[in-house]
Amino acid sequence: MTRAHLSRRSFLTLAGTAAATVAAASVWTRSRHARHGAGTHAAAEGAWRSSGGVLELDLVAEDTTVAIPGGPPRALTYNGLLPGPVLEVHPGDAVRLRLRNRLDQPTNLHYHGLHIPPGGTADNVFLSVDPGASQTYAFTLPADHPAGTFYYHPHRHGTVADQVFGGLGGVLIVRGALDHIPEVAAAREQVLFLKDLPAGGGTAGVMGMGMGMGGMMLGREGPVLTVNGKVNPELSVPAGGLLRLRIVNGSNARFWRLALEDHPLHLIASDGGALEAPVELQELLLAPGERAEVLVQANRSAGRYRLLNLPYARVRGGMGMGMRGGMGMGMGRGPGAGPGPGAGRGQQSQETIATLTYAGSVAPLPLPRRLLPVQPLPEPVRTRRFELNHGMAPGQGLVFLINGRPYDHHRTDTRVRLGDTEDWEVMNTGVMDHPFHVHINPFQVISRNGTPEPYRAWKDVVLVRPGETVRIRTRFADFAGRTVYHCHIFDHEELGMMGNLEIDA
Fold first, then answer.
1. Which terminal residue of the chain, N or C, has fewer Cβ atoms less than 10 Å from its own Cβ?
2. What are phi and psi of 346, to 5 degrees?
3. Amino acid 347: pLDDT
4. What mean pLDDT is reported for the chain?
5. Mean pLDDT throughout 266-281?
6. SS3 label, residue 274
7. CA 444 → CA 97, 240, 257, 268, distances in Å?
8. How many CB atoms lie within 10 A of CB 109?
């Protein structure tokens, strides 16, 4: 099909029309869990833990009145909560979740990061649950599933961006070997679900939420930053102790660039589980869908320390521009360039999102020196290339493209063989950051613009900036079937940046 590319001036003009709207929050109350739950017990306020090897819960998606300072009056929630209930399981557990759709749109569930079957009633993103209907999701977590911090959210193509922006999402924790490392087990644990919301007065429900072309093109953001549905909540840790933060970026499009005053962050796990050893960071960047676990040592003077979200621009400008194959607009970017102020969408000043205080004291606790082995994958049997870009299509307007084509539900874009290991080179020739997500099978990042990654980790989302080529390696293990890969800025996915993946037995 013939495409007319966007000029840079047109792009920036369109970008300037974006307006952030809707999404919301609520306090975490156990009474609401009790109202909707079945067959489980509350492990802690806001958390549900498997019992007898089974996690069973009714999960109700609904439009709810909420109260967030400066935020909107209504949100889309699970069981009346934003974020939804924390789900906690172990390898080998049976999971039975009954999704009840009380929205006015179709919806479904995706178990982001879990290695479970892509069909049937497991992680089947092609299921559609109509308004007023229910769907029972039933699967068994593999006995060797890694421990980690995972994420559930809707993934019904055509409504997913509205619903995630509207508030739907929650944390799923898999317990395992990482939790048994003595230093990790001694830490005080805290989940941080990061979500941006519109300012007060946003439209209720899921329709009309900043759906202008500019907002969709950039990916919608809201100016009210929340942690676990609260504005600037208090976190506490005893002096001398360790704080373990499980951090989830549950936003539709916002990138979170985190730093804790006077405290380094010691990364111990990424999307797919533990690292081999802690990595000290001064700041942590999380794209939409990414997760991380960090340890914080409470070894400073008593006081209050701000957890900051630092400026980040995810749209680039001011560099050379050209077409790539006549299919869209391309813009190069030199290797190693930092986020910078940029010329496009992104937070322009630092904001406090939570405050850490020291409460009490304990004998000083050390950091772990070693964590868990990350086995390298075997050499690939083939290498594939995926180009991310965008352009204009006659009769469709703006489209986002993978290898020059927007998404088609009926097309198989990539066909692989069960058991094969492959390298995928993901190249961004556009002007916006794209977090690339693959369902079902995690991957290891091998290199970025030809430079090897400094440490091995299991990932399922990788940020690909303009001008970058990122090489990832994955093995299609255990489960045949049909699933997807896509940009995890959901407005981009809805506008075409997704492909269908067929795993043949």
1. C
2. 160, 160
3. 61
4. 86
5. 98
6. strand
7. 30, 34, 22, 16
8. 25
> Across residues 299-315, what is the average pLDDT?
95
Contact indicator for 301, 242 with CB cutoff of 8 Å: no
Tell me if 463 sits within 8 A of 284, measured CB to CB.
Answer: no
> What are the pLDDT digits (tens) for 410-464?
999 999 999 999 999 999 999 999 999 999 999 999 999 999 999 999 999 999 9
Q: Which two tokens stand for residue 496?
A: 């075409």
Task: Evaluate whether the domain defined by 182-361 bears CATH number 3.40.50.300.
Answer: no
DSSP structure class, residue 366: P
- What is the side-by-side strand order in the sheet with 86-89? 41-44, 47-49, 86-89, 170-174, 148-153, 110-112
- Partner residues linked to 444 by β-bridges: 473
Which amino acid, one-letter code, is at 344? G
Separation CA 311–CA 474 (nearest Å): 32
Place 329 in a pLDDT band, splitting at 50, 70 and 90: very low
Judged on CB neighbours under 10 Å (0-12, 13-18, 19+), 140 is middle
Q: Which of 35, 13, 129, 144 is nearest to 81 (CA)?
A: 35
What does the alpha-carbon distance between residue 144 and residue 147 come to, in Å, rounded to a whole number? 9
pLDDT at 448: 98
Q: Which of 89, 149, 423, 179 is nearest to 271 (CA)?
A: 149
pLDDT digits (tens, 9 = 90+) for 9-20: 333 333 433 333
Q: What is the pLDDT of residues 360-392, one digit of tens each?
A: 999 999 999 999 999 999 999 999 999 999 988
Measured between alpha carbons, how far is 322 from 431 in angstroms, rounded to an integer? Answer: 11
| Domain limits, the chain | 182-361
Q: Return d(Cα 239, Cα 363) in angstroms, integer.
A: 8
Residue 57: band (very low, low, confident or very high) from pLDDT cuts 50, 70, 90: very high
> What is the distance between the alpha carbons of residues 145 and 50, in angstroms, rounded to a whole number?
15
What pLDDT score was predicted for residue 483?
98
The set of residues, in sequence order, having a beta carbon less than 8 Å from that of 270 and lying 6+ positions away, is 290, 291, 292, 293, 457, 458, 459
What's the count of helices (H) and strands (E) in the chain, helices before strands?
6, 36
Query: What's this model's pTM, rounded to 2 decimal places?
Result: 0.87
